[in-house]
Design a protein that fits this description.
The protein has 74 residues and is of the alpha+beta class. The chain has a single domain, classed as Alpha-Beta Plaits (2-Layer Sandwich). It is built from two helices and six strands. The strands form three sheets. It has a two-stranded antiparallel ribbon. A two-stranded antiparallel ribbon has the order 2-3.
Length: 74
């Protein structure tokens, strides 16, 4: 069964890397040195990244699922 929640990272991310270090599943990475991004297949929405974000721009949200589609969308 797929995770029901996922981390959403705001555009104001400054790529500090705290969320990347905190994620127990390695679902976060720094993209081009500019901001963090979430690998949707790995993220379970545990909220650990949200708690350590110094800018408070990470939110844990319900995944949006398209009927008859195999992948959950963010």
């Amino acid at each position: 069964m797929a995770a029901k929640k996922i981390a959403i990272i705001g555009k104001q991310c400054v790529a500090c890397g705290r969320c990347v270090r905190e994620c127990p599943l390695g679902a976060l990475s720094i993209y081009k040195g500019l901001r963090a991004r979430v690998e949707a297949q790995r993220c379970v929405g545990c909220g650990k990244c949200e708690k350590v974000c110094p800018a408070a721009i990470i939110e844990i949200k319900e995944r949006q699922v398209i009927p008859n589609a195999e992948k959950a969308l963010v």
